[in-house]
## 1
Amino acid sequence: MLGQMQSQPLLISSLITHAERHHGSTEIVSRRVEGDIHRSTWGQVSRRARQVANALDSLHLAFGDRVATLAWNGYRHLELYFGVSGTGRVLHTLNPRLHPEQLAWIVNHADDRAICFDMSFLPLVQAVAGKCPGVKHWIALCDADKLPADSGLPGLVSYEAWMGSQSEKYLWPDLDENSASSMCYTSGTTGNPKAALYSHRSTLLHAYGAALPDALGCSARDSILPVVPMFHVNAWGLPYSAAAVGCKLVFPGPAMDGKSVYELIESEKVSMAAGVPTVWQMLLGHMQQNNLRFSTMKRTVIGGSACPPAMINAFNDTYGVEVLHAWGMTEMSPLGTVCTLKNAQLVLPAEEQLKVRLKQGRAVYGVDMKIVDESGNELPWDGKAYGDLLVRGPWIIASYFKGEGGDPLRYDDAGKGWFPTGDVATIDADGFMQITDRSKDVIKSGGEWISSIDVENIAMAHPAVAMAACVGMKHPKWDERPIVVVMKKPGAEVTREELLAFYEGKIAKWQVPDDVVFVDAIPLGATGKMQKMTLRQQLKDYVLPGL
């Protein structure tokens, strides 16, 4: 027997239709590339998304054709999020922090037909355009009078001229909810990057899951600042969840420095912000130097890489902002877990609560997870056993675009496919998961396992340390020994001996790093994560003390 309810496909266009109808006057605030503050509304974004849809139809792009963006977080990028996917084309967000050669490879691999870009990326676009013969349309996200006369790009048009003359009337097509909606390439730490191809269905389910109170907790009462860039994994689903709940959105554009972010938070009465630790470091540094406080900020979501305890303490204790530790990846749309406390944890002493907050958190409904040993046997949820983290769910990939890399899944005895995340983790009895390492970054010393994250967190707690990375170095007796690579805060001083002494009593003696290497900068990837592979290459001639 079937249920007797209306059948309606889960489509991205339904989100923007809802936002316009029920939250049409709610503000969308953007700091533009031009430097000024632009004010729009959900109603305007919806109308302009329909103009984008008509403009795309005028280009005679086929169903499923890829339309790429090279853009910061702003209202035009938001319009493209809905306007492209709503028509049945695929929105392909490109990461401008990639090397031009890698970017050109991605554009060609994706078969992008059009690229919409912010003017600050014009030099990058000029560097890749000649290597991307498949791109037929170049659209600059600017007013017609801001278009350069000699860009060297064939047929370059301004976004406002391209879509501004189009009708605001457009009937969103009734698509199959399993149709592709958007795509994002992995950061490609090894070999060429691979693309996750999201569907309308997976995107909407993710938007529901992300908005839940125990996830990101989005509501119409919020003013949300996504500092996490929209060119990376759909800005953690926030543009979609925001449309579903009708909250105010505040976009930082290219200005991610501490001062700019703080001023936006205060002027636009931001209640929640989301970003990677490196951005929050800059924000906290600015606030500490100038003795500033938040007036409206209630919570911040921190993901992308592990959040140091010192950062959680600074937000919670000094500024009264709840830190929601989150974890996910490109292949997961990206949200997997969020660390929101249960009643049982709320009554714990502050020190014990912090231990929980340092974990990546509990699975959002829609995500199932488990940890397994090398033979694939499931391990207990006791907070001690660690193993490879596997996930499955309706917004987790089944295969990569064009079948790259073959079947990525691992199958259990029941034939269910699980995606191997590449993370090593523990899960406690309450379901709180903690990443202990990337599988390729695990340090094995004398048969014992050392968590590089634990070593990094202790170093980060030292007042002179801005950033720390722990890597394993070859040792003839112990196989590997950890060292910590440190970038000092401006004007701060700390010696090797002082930092090693700082580890006393905080970690087992055999886990204390053998050495401290001071550097001017730790290499960061396109998503703000530390690039340990690059770091190892930089340290290829390094020899451990005493060898």
## 2
Amino acid sequence: MGLFCLILFMSAVALWFFTNEQYTLFGVYSPTCAMRSRNMHRVVMLFFLPALFVSGRGDVTVSISQHLGLMSMDCSSVLMVLMSAFIVLLALKFFSIKASVVYAFAGALAALNLAAGRGLDRGFMMSFVGAPVMAFLLSAGIRALLRGIFSRIHVHMITLSYYMRLVVIFCIAITAAAVGFNWGGFVTGVGHMIGGEGTVVLSAVAIAALVMVASRFIGQSGNEENSTLFSEFSIYSVVSVGLSVAATLLFFSFDATAGLVYMSPAPLSVSALVMASVAGTETAQKSRMVSDEYYVKEAISMVAAPAGAFLLTCLMLHIKGFAPEDAMISFVIMAVAILVLVFLAFADYARGQRSQREATDRILYAQRQQIYEHSRALSDMELKVVLSENQALHNAVEQKRQEVMNVALSIVEQKEFLESLDDMVSRLAKTDDPKEKDRLISDLSSALKQRLSYDRDVDSQYFYAQAESLHEDFNAKLSENFPNMTQQERRLATLLRLGFSSKYIATLMNITPKSVEISRYRLRQKLGLGKGDNLVNFIKSI
């Protein structure tokens, strides 16, 4: 029965610690990305388990037996301590407060100790208060030291990043070893009171190894949560917090060091040390990295966990007949307790998985919304670009059309000018009056001088070339759909498409207005139009 109680205690404590508390500590290192989460877990196991084995006969183990526990614990006492501690832990976790299993068991064991007529050592109790203070001061000092060092040296960024990565890996290793010494001393110390010194250390190492492997998957949501909590930490802040926590754990794991400040080796809460170290780092660098809610929850857990377990254990001790003497009844009660603990553990795991899925769904939804907004913005930009290009093309077409119109008008004007010259020459040839001849010659000379600057190269062939280049698609469609059309008919269709009147068309084509009407009639026949069809509208629709 003692072995069963020992396994029950170690399994419950290890399950809680490695699925809740360890991620509060090692989640600090996640923002640095010094190593992958899987590799970090392996490094923690590599340094934690040997330290746990060595701690079996360490000062923390001895200190717990001397100052906090009984020489031996029966099954009813173990059950009482387990129930008191985990009722408080689960109640706090219901309110999203992750309390320390060390503090909860310390409170429950303190109640048993007082009930047995033994007092509490002042140096041992002061360690619980002095440790966070020491972590605060160490973190502030290390952060200030790092700031002073790196402000005076000039190292290339790549080189500095490489060395700081090595420092972070060292911090992870030393922190894992420190947790093994301190937390391991707590487990083996209570284990000695339950099952003696025979197989306590080996059992603790085996159970811790199994639970650590399982926690790699069970506690993933807790790891991500703490990674988010410490996401704004710089690598210097991470190193400050990690070194201060590791140093404090090691300091209070040995009698030679703790005795220097008149205190005793004691099991410590890593959550409380992380909180104190974060506060010290924030004080040194004069900036906030975590919210006030984090400090409030940690402060509540530091007080509520030991106090709640202490009071609940005292209440159970005063319940008559709580501790049954019959071994079978004790076995049944403990079996029920195991089932309850397992159910609560898996219920918490399922809730964490559900929360993780919900968080993932929210992230995916936000990403989809972002992609939709980007696509919409891109579509709007593309539409604006197309509209702008269309407007530019429209402006270019309109400019070309205006140029063609100007050329056409210039040709008409030039022909009218030539006709006026022809009229003046005819009158000059018919008159016999010297004065009239002189006047006509003078007028003719003046008109010619005024037109000397006129561009004589502008003619109908140039005009048609410009018009056809402007309406390449139109002329191509005419040739494709109406292959029997002559060049003269295509030119007439082009002029009609440009909106010229019959008078201008006659001038441009060097024909009479009547000939224009005849050409329009023939063009209607070539196009297959009836009497009710509008020739100009049909040409513009091509």
## 3
Amino acid sequence: MNSRIKVSLFDIWGYMRFDYVIVGAGSAGCALANRLSEDGRYRVALIEAGPRDTSPWIHIPVGYFRTMGNPKMDWCYETQEDAGIANRSIPWPRGRVLGGSSSINGLLYVRGQAQDYDGWAQMGCTGWSWSDVLPYFKRSETWEGVDQTGLRGKSGPLSVQNSRLTRDVVDKWVDAAVDAGYKRNPDYNGADQEGVGYFQLTMKGGRRCSSAAAYLAPARTRKNLSVITDAQVEKVVIAEGRATGVQIRRHQRVETISANAEVILSAGAIGSPQLLMLSGIGAGGELSAHGIEVLSDLPGVGKNLQDHLQARPVFKTTLSTVNTEINSYLKKGLIAAKYAFTQRGPMTMAASLGTGFLKTEAHLETPDIQFHIQPWSALKPADGPHKFSAFTASVLQLRPESAGHLTLSSANIDDHPEIHPNYLSTDTDCRTIVKGIQIARRIAQSEPLKSHITEEYAPGVGVALEDEVATLEWARQTSVTIYHPTGTCKMGIDPMAVVDPSLKVKGIRGLRVADASIMPRIVSGNTNAPAIMIGEKASQLVLEDAS
């Protein structure tokens, strides 16, 4: 994308009054900014705490190795010590750059299951059933593959395509899964999610298609859209029960940007509840403890925190993997040259190539685990891959029962909130991740994959396949987030709901939240596509109220 979207009106004229002020230029926020500014009637400000997306590592698909953990583009959150994962504190990367987490994620496009959204509707979230949200998924995407169901979009801003990269080890894993009794599925975003196959990616050609690239690039010449980067929103300004703007800090100056119509928080599952609490919206006792005036006592702010926890079985193999394909400067140089001239090769690699949505029990209505098959292995991605050839069969529970919370650590926006994931705190969650790990190990014992595995590196021979206690302990000691925090400003009609089905914050006029934090329950899969859908639908809700 053209990284200089447009110099903000704020920069040129000190023009600080808009109709709509959107906080957070991530997956949902970019979609909102595009749609609200589309017909030219409304002045829209999109405010991002991080910089423009000028780093080349953002646009090169494999660049997530360089962006995650980089404080120039990542908030670098860390959880509190968590009993469910052996009292470990783990990193929680979130994008702090134009495009948000869609600029640093693994490029994987997953809508989830129809039952996810029908479940939201059954919880009182009218207008959020599968039939309600499907048009927004379709409106958002251009699917470059075959659509045999009519469920895919063909003219949306977000480019979605099959991987340009293949690896024998992933092909053989898919074949082995079929040999183990699981079905192939050419389109898990079609009529049925269940089965094994290959990930669909948010890519255009050989470049990442972030929400910024998809939605802001086409809008960069609009005079009614101002994109303001490197601006930290400190709080929502509220007067007489109405949001009237936001207070920002930029270039060591504190300014107020006014909103004639609405302020919309799209700062994500950590940023949005933090801003609400700092603005006086949240559990009254918790706010008062930090000296914050309570403007709306909403006990659900920061609660209902849900995430996908991944266990990472690793298998050494005789097949070629990224681990050994980049183990010399010459090999790296050839890979870089191939990408420069053809936009193909390992530099187009997403975080995972193969996937599977499977059931741990035959009687289940829908899959309850997801696989991410990666033709590489690493202790930490930022540290680079292992020195030996290996692949990872990452597995996660799709719908965890465990829910955590976050709380303010202080009344200062610069102090990260305390994140308490509360992983693996129910019997169902523990049982499901154990069964998922067992399935990963059994697939590895099936042909044509088995004959190419030289060693199960992790969990390893010290953990017997049928030893559920040892398997669970290994999961607690080694599992990490797969970067899907949700639910902390949940939508609903119950006392713990933060926003209503129109995404309006309860008790405050002129204020909405539109991002993954509004999910009453986490979706069955990666969260970028649903977050973009939320941004699309939110824009329609806003425009309907404006008309």
